[in-house]
Amino acid sequence: MPTKKEAATLLQNIGLLTGSQVEEALEKQRQTKHSIKNILKELGYLHQGNIGSSLLSQFGILPRETSEENVAPEVIKSIPSSFAKEHQVIPLEKKDDTLVLGTDEPLNFLALDYFEEELKKKVQLVMVNQNAIASSLKKYYGIETEDLSPLFEKIDQGYTPILKETEKAVEGEEEEAKRAPIIKLANMLIADGIKKRASDIHVEPLENTFRIRYRIDGVLHETLSPPKNIQRAVIARFKLMAQMNLAEKRLPQDGRIMLNVQGRPIDLRVSTLPGLYGESLVMRILDKTTMLVGMDQLGFLPENRKRWDTLLKFSGGIVLVTGPTGSGKTTTLYTSLNTLNTTDKKLMTVEEPVEYQISGINQTQVRPDIGLTFASVLRSFLRQSPDVLLVGEIRDLETADIGLRAALTGHLVFSTLHTNDAPSAITRLIDLGVPPFLVASSLQGVMAQRLVRLLCPYCKEEYPPDEETKNFLDIKAGEDVHIYRTNGCEACDYTGYHGRIGIFEIFIMNNELRELALKKAATFEIRKAAIKTGMRTLQEDGIIKIRKGLTTVDEVVSVTGRKENVTRN
Description:
39% of the residues lie in helices and 22% in strands. It has 24 helices and 19 strands. It has a seven-stranded mixed β-sheet with strand order 13-12-14-15-11-16-19, sandwiched between helices. It has a six-stranded antiparallel β-sheet with strand order 7-6-5-10-9-8. This is Type II secretion system protein GspE. InterPro entries: AAA+_ATPase, P-loop_NTPase, T2SS/T4SS_dom, T2SS_E_N_sf, T2SS_GspE_N.
């Protein structure tokens, strides 16, 4: 069995990883102690589909059909139950001085280190499917599986709700929320959502049903329909975890749940809303490990990456990122701030809310109820001698005015606006009431962005494009272009997509654009001038990514609209 370094090098040698990716993954494992497979998947470098039978054989990992045979007690005792549960491994047998482990994570080198270093034993891994591992963990260690179906059946058969249809049932509701089956169900829903890369968990009471949906890669997927009679108890459980008022069902509430899942800090932002059939509850999953990605993972093509890097190097001025809610603006800004986060610079942010805590950055959350607004915090920031400022969003004239004036006094300021494209940011600022001279003198550049889903690399299929598609992609007669569409496999949960990537349009201010701002020119004039500077539009950026086999025509059209006519001189 190879060591971690040897195995990672093997992945590099067979073309699955680059040298820098190997080093990044190994360094992250040293810091987090997570399995190398999970780290590679989190970094986006490796998916289950990469681990084919040929690769397993190169690692010396043998498949085993089942793990249902009886295992000797002394073998079971060789592994603490906590370790078996955490790493999802089961001991199967001892061969001389070698311990045979069953795992569905054949690259779980952390387990190898544990046994070879702590128990002074050689370890051999065999491939065992997840269901067999779950049943063996339950059989030998008393660890329950995470299959929700038996739990639902048990609840349906033996569960009698004590909640009454009355506002006076708060004590009973709290008692229900503390029952073991309800606690287990709530925990499982959160764990399952995190495992499936959900950004939000929607708990929705309907007229005759109770629905759970996960938002994955920007799209809602129905995952479970628990029994209707436990609806209020489940929602009460989540409210209890978020320290909300159980008795208040007439008004919306906000709360927060802090969890630690396999060593990863997870922050759940919980909101409730009264409805006709009960309270609707949504939990937004904030996972720092997925938020702070590398710049290379944002999706910049070389030309746009060069433009964005240029904007990051300015010592003063304001840089804006535009796009609707859910377009990835926060991820882009956090990732960019992290690259600027050095010991010789002071970085400060004002946000609503602070979504992720970044070491080395001073972050402030606004509190409008006590007068702590974006504008008031920004004024105080200027007395703190900062180098780089992030204003979560420019919503009003006061915030815009202070932000742009701060940009004129030697501070690099980042912020966001809700506009359809990058050129519209100039007219939006002027519409807010910012003097045109202030926009022209302080604005350094603008980037608009959207997110499109990535085609699953393991099941995407090539197809001959029709005439409409050829026209959209500007495919010329005789041009050799490979276009792909979705298919569906186990790796992508049969959606055809796995992950998302940004499409961008970026312009850097020049003299012509500053003159147009001073003249309060229309957006279409600013757009023409930005394109003259070399700005690639959102749709053009998306088309390049379709041609590269990264996404589909449907995805790009869904965020950029019909074919646009771009004139370049």
